[in-house]
Amino acid sequence: MIRLPALSLMLAKLTSKNQITLPKAAVSEIDASEYFDVAVENGRIVLTPVRMQQAQAVRQKLEQLGITEQDVENAIAWARR
């Protein structure tokens, strides 16, 4: 007889504000992380923990917005007038 491992079912509810609380048992199995990379694969939402330094997060956002270091320097100089 072949024995299959017991399936562990954990549910998370999606709120009206698109928020999900992850089950403690699931979170305890991964390294502590505040941010997750989100991907959709074959109809599933896949969360991958990422460690992101705050400064790096700011740099990435500025890059996404097309704001250069020179733009930041110009804004600081303008604000200091």
Question: Can you walk me through this structure?
Answer:
This protein has 81 residues and is of the alpha+beta class. It has a domain at 24-79. 32% of the residues lie in helices and 17% in strands. The chain has a two-stranded antiparallel sheet. A hairpin with a 2-residue loop joins strand 1 (35-41) and strand 2. It is elongated, with a radius of gyration of 21 Å. The mean pLDDT is 86.
| Average pLDDT | 86
Count of helix runs:
3
What is the succession of H and E elements?
A: HEEHH
Task: List the uncertain runs.
Answer: none
Descriptive keywords:
alpha+beta; 81 residues; 17% strand; two-stranded antiparallel sheet
Question: What's the SSE blueprint?
Answer:
Elements: H1 24-27, E1 35-41, E2 44-50, H2 54-64, H3 69-79
Antiparallel strand pairs: 1-2
Would you summarize the structure shown here?
32% of the residues lie in helices and 17% in strands. It is built from 3 helices and 2 strands.
